């Protein structure tokens, strides 16, 4: 790992709390009064992390060194968690060729990635909005898919990689050269199935690589379908683009979608909205989609009921074993027995 510049921000020596920013990351730190006083006189410390035990320049007290190294370890863990073992239950990994986007539809209203970005958890500036510079990723970050690919080949498995969870790969304001680098990475990782999702299907053809042909064998193309007005037209655009697998992310599902034409669609992910301010989802909407998927031979995956599930307009309370609410509605073992028919998590048949 290259040298890292850590900038310090203190909330005051009396509180003993502050934050440490490391490159594009930040972490809260409980600081002793002496440490707070020390960092008030230190604009930056360079940490050389090439060795496991760490070498700190300029040399500081043992207390400062220990706290800084703890933060460095936290930063590294956060980046690994950001990459692997995603909480998304239909994928193994997530990968973001850059971070940042511009809201473009009703489904973006409570975007968790924008919320994280605005809290500046990964950088000191925002990357959200038209004309705003997106955050590019480190060289080390780009090496991870290559490692996943080697492991997949060794273990004879095909992990699904969601791209992108904090961006839109078809964003017209993508950082220069990063989308091209994404295609290079995809070509270099034939043992991974890349799931590319967008709310901008009209940009797909423009940004596909020249050798796309009938589709890369390890790329699934998908569009978000949150409502009738903005979501349903995206299905028609996706249907006309060659791909080995076309999928719909019907999440957050904001209304009854009515009749669906799923011709040439292979997979549908369904889920309610989570997080503060989440809008409700009625289980009747899920039942309608599942029925149509079955009739049209499309695999379906019910991801979650969301934070505010309803049944025919009446709110459902999904409780954990400790009596607290399940704010995602993802754990199917907690669903009422009469909703067992909604426990559907099927994958599309591989097309190779």
How much of the polypeptide forms β-strand, as a percent range? Answer: 15-25%
Strand order of the largest sheet: 6-9-10-11-12-13-15
Query: Number of helical segments?
Result: 8
Roughly how many Å apart are the termini? 39 Å
Low-confidence stretches: 1-62, 71-83
Query: How many discrete structural domains?
Result: 2
The topology string of helices and strands comes to EEEHEEHEEHEHEHEHEHEEEHEEE
For the residues shown, what is the average pLDDT?
Answer: 80
Q: Could you give the count of β-strands?
A: 17
Structural class, by secondary structure, is alpha/beta
Question: How much helicity do the residues have?
Answer: 25-40%
Quickly list its features.
single chain; 352 residues; alpha/beta; 2 domains; seven-stranded parallel β-sheet; five-stranded antiparallel β-sheet; 8 helices; 26% helix; globular; disordered N terminus
How does the SSE layout of this entry go?
Elements: E1 4-10, E2 17-22, E3 25-30, H1 33-40, E4 44-48, E5 55-57, H2 62-83, E6 93-94, E7 98-99, H3 112-118, E8 135-136, H4 139-155, E9 160-163, H5 178-187, E10 193-198, H6 204-207, E11 219-224, H7 228-239, E12 245-250, E13 267-271, E14 281-282, H8 283-295, E15 299-304, E16 309-311, E17 314-315
Parallel strand pairs: 6-9, 9-10, 10-11, 11-12, 12-13, 13-15, 14-16
Antiparallel strand pairs: 1-2, 1-4, 2-3, 4-5, 7-8, 16-17
């Amino acid at each position: 790992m290259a040298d890292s510049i850590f900038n310090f921000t203190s909330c005051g020596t009396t509180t003993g709390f502050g934050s440490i920013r490391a490159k594009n990351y930040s972490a809260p730190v409980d600081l002793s009064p002496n440490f707070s006083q020390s960092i008030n006189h230190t604009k930056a410390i360079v940490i050389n992390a090439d060795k496991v035990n760490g070498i700190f320049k300029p040399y500081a007290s043992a207390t400062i060194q220990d706290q800084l190294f703890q933060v460095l370890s936290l930063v590294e863990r956060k980046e690994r968690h950001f990459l692997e073992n995603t909480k998304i239950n239909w994928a193994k990994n997530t990968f973001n060729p850059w971070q940042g986007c511009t809201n473009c539809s009703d489904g973006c209203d409570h975007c968790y990635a924008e919320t994280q970005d605005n809290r500046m958890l990964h950088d000191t500036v925002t990357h959200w909005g038209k004309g705003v510079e997106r955050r590019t990723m480190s060289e080390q970050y780009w090496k991870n898919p290559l490692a996943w690919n080697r492991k997949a080949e060794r273990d004879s498995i095909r992990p699904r990689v969601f791209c992108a969870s904090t961006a839109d790969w078809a964003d017209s304001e993508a950082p220069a050269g990063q989308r091209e680098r994404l295609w290079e990475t995809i070509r270099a990782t034939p043992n991974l199935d890349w799931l590319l999702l967008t709310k901008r299907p009209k940009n797909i053809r423009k940004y596909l690589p020249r050798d796309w042909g009938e589709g890369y064998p390890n790329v699934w193309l998908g569009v978000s379908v949150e409502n009738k007005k903005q979501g349903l037209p995206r299905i028609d655009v996706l249907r006309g683009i060659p791909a080995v697998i076309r999928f719909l992310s019907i999440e957050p599902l904001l209304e009854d979608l009515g009749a669906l034409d799923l011709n040439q669609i292979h997979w549908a992910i369904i889920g309610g909205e989570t997080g503060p301010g989440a809008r409700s989802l009625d289980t009747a909407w899920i039942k309608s989609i599942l029925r149509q998927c079955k009739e049209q031979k499309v695999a379906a995956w019910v991801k979650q009921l969301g934070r505010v599930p309803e049944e025919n307009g009446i709110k459902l309370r999904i409780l954990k074993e400790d009596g607290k609410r399940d704010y995602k509605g993802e754990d199917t073992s907690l669903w009422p027995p009469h909703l067992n028919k909604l426990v559907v998590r099927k994958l599309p048949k591989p097309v190779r």
